[in-house]
Specification:
CATH architecture: Roll
Order of helices and strands: HHEEHEEEE
Number of strands: 6
Distance between the termini: 30 Å
Radius of gyration: 14 Å
Oligomer: single chain
Largest sheet: 6 strands, mixed
Number of domains: 1
CATH class: Alpha Beta
Structural class: alpha+beta
Strand content: 35-45%
Length: 124
């Protein structure tokens, strides 16, 4: 069942998150940077911490294969004033994702994203 935002702030965070995912799929560095704060960091499922500039260079613009659009479920957004936390399951990579967003001057920007692999009972 799709997540229904409780208010305009939650809807805006979901829109920014979707825009970031689409920018990644399309290798659109300008759109990715427009929706992430300069201090944005990406923490991989293996624990690596990558600043925005490096993530854009190596991940957003990197590679040559076709990227599929985002497929996710279990989206939840919690807003705490000018900070929001979004969690969801990435179905393409079998990961749980968490994004942290801040509202600056009326615009939501991602400041951090972290992923962790979903392990089944046979993967210990």
């Amino acid at each position: 069942m799709p997540y229904t935002p409780a208010n305009a702030a939650e809807a805006a965070v979901i829109k920014v998150n979707d825009t970031i995912n689409e920018a990644f799929r399309a290798r659109d560095a300008a759109a990715y940077e427009a929706n992430t704060a300069p201090e944005f960091v990406r923490i991989s499922s293996f624990g690596g911490v990558t600043p925005r500039a490096d993530f854009v260079k190596n991940a957003v613009l990197g590679g040559t294969g076709t990227r599929l659009g985002a497929a996710s479920d279990e989206m939840r957004v919690r807003v705490y004033g000018d900070v929001a936390v979004a969690t969801y399951r990435n179905l393409r990579n079998n990961e749980r994702m968490m994004g942290v967003f801040v509202n600056r001057g009326g615009a939501w920007k991602a400041v951090a994203a972290i992923s962790t692999r979903i392990w089944n009972d046979t993967m210990e």
